[in-house]
Amino acid sequence: MSGRQWPGGIGLAGGIDKDGSRAAELLAAGFDSVEFGTAIPRPESGEHPCVASLAARLAALARCADARIGIGIGIGMGDGASPAALAAEWVCGLHAAYDVADYLSFNLSARRYRPLLSAALLPLLMHAMEAVAAARRRCAKESGRRVALALKLPLGSDGMLPLILAEAAADAGFDAVTAVLPENVGRLSRLRHLAAHLHGKAALVAVGGIRSAGDVAAALACGADGVQVHTIFAQCGAACLASLRAR
What confidence tens digit (pLDDT) does each residue in 168-179 have? Predict the structure, then answer.
């Protein structure tokens, strides 16, 4: 496990509950962490919840939840925001969620954010990560509370850009990289490659295709510090934890 702060274990991935309406149920399901969202930084008309409304809904529940459960909030970008606005969008989301979350996940994995994954935009992406880390330092100093940071990105089947971004996040001060595994037979070797590339500078969380205790064990054996699940929970509910934790 990285020396940085991270909940670890088996977490519930973002996307199951984007607005916090199922928070009481999910926080009682038995996961080591639950991620809500992805939410956008500012209120907008449309289907995407904003971070402030999600955080407000979670605030009362967070005080009553088991303190051992990590509460995560996924942060994206508003509709129509340009790539140049990425740093401002992420920092706005951080401020809105900081008092409620144990960790914040900055999402580059959703389909609507995939256009940002371009080598030409690498300086912009690195600037955004550094801006978030700097904002976290200021918030931690003011509040006396340090919230963990994660970068969520698709690992892909090949190419260096995901590895470069993961390492840049760790170097900026992010605590974890959440890697969305590709849907192919080389997914675990790709995860192992990323773990070696990070050199333990940040925790590594694997998500995508984790459906059994064997899948959990395989991800951990390849260097992951924890996993998240999505589809298996959507299909089976909290009962999936028995198969995920089976020895």
Answer: 999 999 999 999
